[in-house]
Amino acid sequence: MAESGFFKVSEIVQMAIDEEHNGTIFYETLQKVATSPALKEFAKRLAIEEHGHEKAFTELRESLEAYDPPETYPGEYADYVNVLVSGKTFPEDEDAAKLAREAGGDVQAIDTAIRFEKNTLLFLNEMRRLVPDRDQPTIEELVEEERRHLVELTKIRADLA
After folding, report:
1. Euclidean distance between CA atoms 156 and 50, whole angstroms
2. Residue 127: helix, strand or coil by DSSP?
3. Which domain holds residue 107?
4. 132 and 9 Cβ atoms separated by less than 8 Å
5. Is 65 exposed, middle or buried (0-12, 13-18, 19+ CB in 10 A)?
6. What is the CATH number of the domain that holds 123?
7. pLDDT tens-digit readout, 77-123
8. Gap between the Cα atoms of 61 and 6, Å rounded
């Protein structure tokens, strides 16, 4: 974390990179353990897309400049980001694979994936305030892809339930 309680924007983007990386691992593992052919195929596609998101965030991180978010009290933004990060679906690489392996079935794995996609959407919506205007289209594109993932997961869950 940056000095004086602030997170640097690059640190927040790194958190997004880490979460997308762990999402890739989750979906790769889910592809191997799912019993539904539709879920296997969908997990394969999502693993590829999450890996693409990881690349997009890496490029974004490399282009960012320093930013100090406005606060109503010292450390406000760091406190908020800590709350967001504490709700991460996949704290570590191995947690992502373990959640897929030990989900208890396809429907439960989809529930985990839905939680991941919702958490990612919340995080991305907060990132919108941090990135320069030139990077807004990247964030918007990622938000739309995550929304699509959420809708598709919900449909697959309904088909399997």
Report:
1. 18
2. helix
3. 3-160
4. no
5. exposed
6. 1.20.1260.10
7. 667 666 666 666 666 677 888 989 998 999 999 999 999 889 888 88
8. 17
